[in-house]
Amino acid sequence: MITGKNFIGNKTSSKGTITYKTFNPVLNKETPWTFKEATSDEINEAVSLAVEAFKEYKSCSGAKKATFLNAIADEIEALGDSLIETYTAESGLPEGRAKGERGRTMGQLRAFATLLEEGSWVEATIDTAQPERQPLPKPDIRKMQFPIGPVVVFGTSNFPLAFSTAGGDTASALAAGCPVIVKSHPMHAATGELVSAAITKAAEKTGMPKGVFSNINSKGIEVGKQLVMHPKIKAVGFTGSIKGGTALYELASQRKEPIPVYAEMGSINPVIAFPSALMEKGDFWAKQYAGSITLGAGQFCTNPGLILGVKSDALTKFINTLGKEISQIEPTPMLHPNIHKAYKTGMETASSQAQTKEVAAYTGKANPNYGKAKVLTVDGNVFLNNTVLHQEVFGPYSIIVQCENDTELENILNALEGQLTGTILGNAEELTQKSKIVDALKEKVGRLILNSVPTGVEVCPAMHHGGPFPATTDAKYTSVGVSAVKRWVCPVAYQNWPLELLPDALKNENPLQITRIVNGIYTDKKV
Ligand code: NAP
């Protein structure tokens, strides 16, 4: 049963008077549940408990934290159909997507557990002393990563599970050894409550300190602001709009002690269609891209919002086929009336820009909150000089830019803001011949894709889901894959420290049997 309460440490709490409801976009009506926004006292209590929990949790062994993360995955699985039904009711996303996202969420938790069990992620680096060195002796120096402290995670609207309560940000922060306070996304507060109950149960079963996890309800930005400004919070994870992410980033940098905000924000994910792809497989790619643009009503951070090519008959044919395909795809519900409204506004703004032409639009009748696809086209020089067209339109939308030549295409890439992904459709010969274009794209993105669609992010250690601003606030870090743990740690070096008092990861005997860098060489041997 959904209670609408906050989770403060291992207890539920509802002291506030501000209430709100979530919304079923398919039925176009509110869900039956009522949620209570957290009060300042409840927020302070969650932070105080997290501070206390950190004293113990930061020293938990990798094996113990792994047991906790695996237990969270098990408890999420044990929620069974109730989680899937609540997710679909609050998001309008289909059951298959809900189940897939649940699997991905559990997979992420288990991947971090495996990382902890293996242990080398702490990056233990040992430089042994050289007392005889001239002109000065070299001291013994040993460094490793340590957790930074309580972290605030903002749940995101478009991934109610995989980027929310127990999503990648939470899993990676808990793996690092940081207690987590989730600021629940107001559009799927019931899904968040079920997952919070699962995390709390797992924490109790595995003997984690009270306060290692809290879930704070809110509708409106004040609660999130208070959390970010709390002096005991050490970092923030966020996925959402550029406006929201940059507001939180600026807020955090104005604190007496500024803290990092790892925000993943907007991206239009440029796709470049080289001549070989258009001539040899134009129809194939048009069909693939019609599917990718409309997948999940276009509500993916990796949605292909910009397709670039040099004018040719093959490009015209590609555009026509894409148009035909798009206009046949039935609209699907968007997450919420507000996101639907934002999509309509963004799409109308783009369509009203001078010299843009419609390639395709779904013209049939659609239910309220359903996103009708739209694809525009425009000449390269017009796109280059109108940055309104460079902005993300979150939904089933894309613009195809027809360039005069490769130089114009390269100039456009140079004028774009930072992106999560950049895709090239073409062959290896073109990658070499058009290396200036490839280089220009590489400067702007966190992931280069060849002959595929950008939607669908593989969760694996080599994944980099990040990119230059405004795709993220820090291009060095990923929010997908086990490297995401690096956002929540900080190195400390020990100089001339008594060997027996060093953390296990830095001891000569290497009791954890992890891979370390000893005097410049990767090894799992004793020093
Ligand atoms: P959002 O508006 O950025 O909100 C995300 C979370 O941050 C919410 O919990 C929100 O709180 C909070 N927040 C936003 N601005 C804040 C501020 N100034 N101070 C404190 N907290 C703040 O994103 P959304 O609700 O998920 O969707 C809105 C739009 O964001 C979409 O239409 C889309 O354009 C974009 N979006 C992009 C991506 C992407 O991956 N590129 C993903 C999701 C959304 P409240 O809701 O409680 O106000």
Walkthrough of the structure:
The chain is an alpha/beta fold. The protein has helices at 40-57, 62-78, 80-91, 95-118, 168-176, 189-205, 222-229, 242-253, 275-294, 313-328, 337-351, 380-384, 406-415, 428-433, 435-444, and strands spanning 6-8, 11-13, 19-20, 23-24, 29-30, 35-36, 125-127, 141-147, 151-154, 180-183, 213-216, 235-239, 261-264, 270-273, 306-310, 332-333, 357-361, 370-371, 374-379, 397-403, 419-425, 445-450, 489-495, 516-518, 521-523. Helix content is 38%, strand content 19%. The strands form seven sheets. The chain has a seven-stranded mixed beta sheet, with helices on both faces. Strands 23-8-7-24-25 form a five-stranded mixed beta sheet, with no helix packed on it. 53% of the residues are buried. Bound molecules: NADP nicotinamide-adenine-dinucleotide phosphate.
Keywords:
Aldehyde dehydrogenase (NADP(+)), Ald_DH_N, alpha/beta, Aldehyde Dehydrogenase, Chain A, domain 1, Aldehyde Dehydrogenase, Chain A, domain 2, globular, oxidoreductase, 25 strands, 2 domains, 5-stranded mixed beta sheet, 7-stranded mixed beta sheet
